[in-house]
Amino acid sequence: MEWIVAIIVGGVAGWLASLVMRRDASMGIFMNVVVGIVGALLGNAFIAPLLGFGGSIQSFNAAGFVIAILGAIVLLAIANLIQRGRVR
Fold first, then answer.
1. Can you give the pTM of this predicted structure?
2. 53 φ, ψ to 5°?
3. Annotated domain spans of the chain
């Protein structure tokens, strides 16, 4: 059951991050889920210790969701730098 929650929360976080970074048209639902889950993992590893709180996308809570979105945004910004040489 935890993996189903992780996929759903990761998909929503990836979709919101792609809207913020204006990459929604170039990404499909599968890439939204992947970016959201990887962003959540990176966010919990690097951003959560800086902010002083953490969470998990396997059990839905607001802190974990915000960290997942922030991690996905950072991941998309890095992808923009690699692809285009700049951040949008």
1. 0.77
2. -145, 165
3. 2-84
CA diameter of the chain? 40
Long-range contact set of residues 64-69: C-beta below 8 Å, sequence gap at least 24: 64/9, 64/40, 65/9, 65/12, 65/13, 67/40, 67/43, 68/9, 68/10, 68/13, 68/36, 68/39, 68/40, 68/43, 69/13, 69/16, 69/17, 69/20, 69/39, 69/43
Convert the pLDDT of each residue in 47-62 to its tens digit. Answer: 777 877 665 555 667 8
Q: Which residues contact 37 (CB under 8 A, 6 or more apart)?
A: 6, 7, 10, 14, 57
pLDDT tens, position by position, 2-59? 778 777 887 888 888 888 888 766 667 787 778 888 887 888 778 777 877 665 555 6
